[in-house]
Amino acid sequence: MAQAESLVSRRVFVGQNIFTEIVVWRIPAPLKGSSHTYKYRFALVANNVCVLRYDNEAGKGDHRHIGEAEIPYAFSTIEALLADFKGDVERWLHENNHL
């Protein structure tokens, strides 16, 4: 039986009390609600509050959280996911005067 494989797990500080955390696993079969074999969590945390998160919980599928809103996300590749996350992080930092 295949097992989950950790591909990435890193935390990067992008400002005082602000960091991103990226965690990606390759899993043997897609989670319910997803069509790919990745389990992921990309988060932006500011002052101990998660202000932006992309993830794919079993049953919910791929989605992102912006503040309190939960929005479906159209996953295509890990590279596109990372680019979309980075764009949202830059936008949040700019809109919140951290750039």
Helix and strand topology:
Layout lengths: L4 E11 L2 E9 L11 E9 L2 E9 L3 E6 L2 E4 L5 H18 L4
Antiparallel strand pairs: 1-2, 2-3, 3-4, 4-5, 5-6
Pfam families: TumE (PF20126)
Q: What do you see in this structure?
A:
The structure is a single chain. The model has no long low-confidence stretch (mean pLDDT about 95). Strand 4 and strand 5 form a beta hairpin. Helices cover about 20% and strands about 50% of the residues. The radius of gyration is 14 Å and the shape is globular. By secondary structure, the protein is α+β, with helices and mostly antiparallel strands. It holds the Pfam family TumE.
Strand order of the main beta sheet, please?
1-2-3-4-5-6
- Spatial shape: globular
Low-confidence stretches: none
- Computed over alpha carbons, the radius of gyration is 14 Å
| Number of H- or I-type helical stretches | 1
Query: Approximately how much beta-strand content do the residues carry?
Result: over 45%
Identify the notable features of this structure and list them briefly.
single chain; 99 residues; alpha+beta; 6 strands; 48% strand; TumE-like
Summarize the structure.
This protein has 99 residues and is of the alpha+beta class.
